[in-house]
Amino acid sequence: MYGGSRLIIKQKRFLIKPNSYIIDLFTVDFITWKENEKEEGTYWTKLHIGTKETRYVCKDAWELKRIIELWCEIHGKEVMVTIEELIGEEKWD
Questions:
Q1: Global pTM?
Q2: Measuring CA to CA, which residue among 78, 73, 68 is closest to residue 30?
């Protein structure tokens, strides 16, 4: 199930993927993401730690936004981003 799991964050720092892992967002060096081509509206997210990475599927852009803003906050920066900035989606009339 790509986007069906619920985002679980403890103490504004630890991301839990049920039945899989817990990751300390403080140790994440940077984050990359792209839309899941198989399930539109979900996002493949890679949390990079040194030469390794952990993958997480965000059920929607809001979940991606929450992870990125929390990661920035943990590193001492308040960075407010919009959904459009994250996914590059432009609305056409």
A1: 0.83
A2: 68
